Amino acid sequence: MSDSKLIEIHDATIWRGSTRVFEHLTLDIEQHERVAILGPNGCGKTTLLKTINRELYPVATPGTYLRVLGRDKWNVWELRKQIGVVSNDLHQRYTPTTTALEVVVSGFHSSIGIHGTLAERISQVEIDAAMKTLRELGAADLRDTELKYMSSGQQRRCLLGRALVHDPATLILDEPTTGLDFAASFDYLQRIRRLARAGRNIVMVTHHLNEIPPEVDRVVLLRAGQVVADGTKNEVLTAAMLSDVYETPIRVAEVDGFYLAYPGADA
User: Fold this and answer.
1) Cα–Cα distance between 239 and 252 in angstroms, integer?
2) C-alpha separations of 135 from 6, 58, 164, 205 in Å
3) In whole angstroms, what is the distance from residue 100 CA to residue 153 CA?
4) Taking the CB of residue 193, how many other CB atoms lie within 10 A of it?
5) Would you list the domain boundaries of the chain?
């Protein structure tokens, strides 16, 4: 499995509800790549992540395949040990009374919180591992604090802890700094940068160029369910390319490895 690609999607048609989002999609992501997926609203970014994460499946047709780490089929709970997920959608599914420890421990069971009979199955080993993760994220003091009493940045750190509790090789991040102020956003991005430098695969969806840390070196640009550009940041994050895809004049600046978009001259 170590020589397999992280993701292989070939000639896939993918529906989300009654909407066909992708048709004949082909995309490969190697292990140890750090990739940002970018594009206008409705282009298919989140659908693509949900497909990678096995929440959605391509239409079964001859020649179509979706492989994760070389396998066509996964037990979803086993896959969660390989790929950690942080998303605003997941964040919103937690009740305000869930504690930091419960959020992180729930990562062991791919659950939303710890309820009912599941609470009886939590082991001390899992609690110890969850606390170790919280300490590493600078959130150990939040152990028994309910989400409703935390800042948005603290809540998002708990979700990151949930994703990291299995020590997965890959992190999937869907709009990671949504709802965070400057301080919380910069803190969160620093943590993502450290994880990337430590060798983790990073696959992130974002609306904002400044969310893409310098360690992310590949950008996949989508428009209306099609891959319109796929390459290095220098190749893809150009004024001409972004202006065309977003259908508005855009200028681009690069500062210390971060890219920034701002209105073009005719905007």
Assistant:
1) 6
2) 29, 39, 12, 27
3) 12
4) 16
5) 33-50+76-263
Residue among 26, 17, 165 at smallest CA distance from 85: 165
Fill in the DSSP letter of residue 237: S
pLDDT digits (tens, 9 = 90+) for 115-134: 767 777 889 999 999 999 99
> Which residue type, as a one-letter code, is found at position 223?
R
Instruction: Give the mean pLDDT of the chain.
Output: 91
Helical residues (DSSP H) of the chain, grouped into ranges? 45-52, 76-82, 88-92, 100-105, 124-136, 152-164, 182-197, 233-236, 239-246
Number of other CB atoms surrounding residue 247 within 10 Å? 9
pTM of the complete model: 0.91
Could you tell me if 137 and 161 are in contact, meaning their C-beta atoms sit under 8 angstroms apart?
Answer: yes
Task: Classify domain 33-50+76-263 at the CATH superfamily level.
Answer: P-loop containing nucleotide triphosphate hydrolases (3.40.50.300)
Which tokens belong to 246? 């977003």
Quick check: 182 and 213 in contact, CB under 8 A? no
